[in-house]
């Protein structure tokens, strides 16, 4: 194989969970040029990735179809030997189908998969990890079954976070896009009260998460909490997690940032379950959840509000969190 394209235009966590495919392809085809397509906003995750030849970005700001067909035109000129689509939505399937790749692999769930040369099942709920599902697409080439994701913060990223590195510090990432996947603010406050009084706690997240961080700090009696939401890049956040005593996350993107650095991590699963295949992959990882609820899980992606109105799955016991 001379040139390979991987497509993953879904969310932040999905891109991180695609990185084992990149590392395995480079191991199996060391001489191949390896490209990837991600959506606008996720490209910074793959900066410094030594396996990549070219990073393409799906930017819909000037029109979705203009962007899609512009990429298709470019990809058709690249003469790919293999195009691998890890996303199950139509636009990525169309790009794959029209790429002129000699081999076009992807998941059967994609509406354009009938135009692939090979299709694969994508079963959620049986405990198979998403990394394993992704790697199954290249299993015929000798790929390992399970490989930890990898991100590559630069030396500059580590220099930026160095002032925050203490002998004993924790990272918390309290926000999620979905309400029912997010441990409530009062539980995060409770968590801070279980951590050593002489430790430092950093709140991580996007600029939009700053307000939640401020609420946690205001309500907590812990005296050493600093809100870094919106102040660090994704790779800088990952770098800070790497040497933390422990990081605490929801079932969301920061969970996979921690996995990519093999950082000590505790993940809180509220409305979703680890059997969906998105749990932590660090050597030292814990999963905390409420067992025995008939209404859980109530969906793969979570909801904007609890469908039952009680949100009992968020009442996780924190005593064994670290």
Topology (elements, then pairings):
Layout: E1 3-7, H1 12-16, H2 19-28, E2 33-39, E3 54-58, H3 64-77, E4 82-85, H4 90-97, E5 103-107, E6 118-120, H5 130-136, H6 155-161, E7 169-173, H7 185-194, E8 200-203, H8 210-219, E9 225-227, H9 234-242, E10 246-250, H10 253-260, E11 265-269, E12 285-289
Parallel strand pairs: 1-2, 1-4, 2-3, 4-5, 5-6, 7-8, 7-10, 8-9, 10-11, 11-12
Overview of this structure, please?
There is one protein chain. This protein has two domains: 3-141, Rossmann fold; 155-314, Rossmann fold. Strands 3-2-1-4-5-6 form a six-stranded parallel sheet, sandwiched between helices. α4 (90-97) links the parallel β4 (82-85) and β5 (103-107). The longest helix has 14 residues, at 64-77. It has helices spanning 12-16, 19-28, 64-77, 90-97, 130-136, 155-161, 185-194, 210-219, 234-242, 253-260; strands spanning 3-7, 33-39, 54-58, 82-85, 103-107, 118-120, 169-173, 200-203, 225-227, 246-250, 265-269, 285-289. With 322 residues, the protein is α/β, with parallel strands linked by helices. The chain has ten helices and twelve strands. α6 crosses α9.
